[in-house]
Amino acid sequence: MEQNPIRIAEILLDLVDVNLIGVEDLSDQGPKTPLRVHIECRGERPTCPLCHGKSYSKGTSLVELIDLPSFGRAVRLIWHKHRWVCRDPQCSAGSWSDQDARIAAPRLRLTDRAGRWATRVVGRDGRSVSSVARELDCDWHTINDAVIAYETPLVEDPNRYGQVHALGLDEILFYREGRYRTQHWSTSIVDVTCATLLDIVPGRDVKGAKEVDRQSAQGVA
Ligand SMILES: [Zn+2]
After folding, report:
1. Residues in the chain, pLDDT under 50
2. How many angstroms separate the alpha carbon of residue 42 from the centre of ligand 1?
3. What pLDDT score was predicted for residue 14?
4. How far apart are the CA of 61 and the centre of ligand 1, in A?
5. From ligand 1's centre to the CA of 90, what distance in Å?
6. What is the mean pLDDT of the chain?
7. In this structure, is the dihedral angle defined by the CA atoms of residues 68, 71, 76 and 78, taken in order, positive or negative?
8. 108 pairs with which residues across the strands?
9. What is the whole-number distance in angstroms between the Cα of residue 55 and the centre of ligand 1?
10. Is residue 67 a contact partner of residue 41, using CB atoms and an 8 Å limit?
11. pTM of the entire predicted model
12. What's the pLDDT at 219?
């Protein structure tokens, strides 16, 4: 059993190298008010990224991140980010803030784990962005931005298919549009040996599929 309070906090938070500063319970403002968990990065004072000299702290700024629910409650992780300045007045590094991709990617409003979870349930389980936003008690754009940010490297990774042994194409009626119920088709591209969906392209002619086929040709055995 862990009894060290720092490690207990790390285990409960599932984050390492952080200090748990405190917890704000604002349930008197409504039962659905998120729990606010305040953290800061722990560790040695960083050296200047430019001259590698010593730095000093110039205070902190608070960054509010949407996190996964905990103990049945919505959670906001409040990251007290230290702002650092190089001690050398001649150095042009300026100031910089704590960064830790294990907590959150820069510029996203979700924690890393919440962003990955949202991307997984939207991309794999087919859940709507709005339902995920409701569950995490945040707005649609916050989830959509995170899903795009996490999905893009996966989609742009040329090795995401692994080695494809045999391609199969399947045309599917995607939707009907307008007064005349005009049919719009899509083509699903699968690796038939392991029944894995590789991509979906618009239309049912060979043009879209050929483009994907060309991209994955290097992976075909
Ligand atoms: Zn410097």
Report:
1. 218-221
2. 21
3. 86
4. 21
5. 8
6. 82
7. negative
8. none
9. 8
10. no
11. 0.66
12. 45
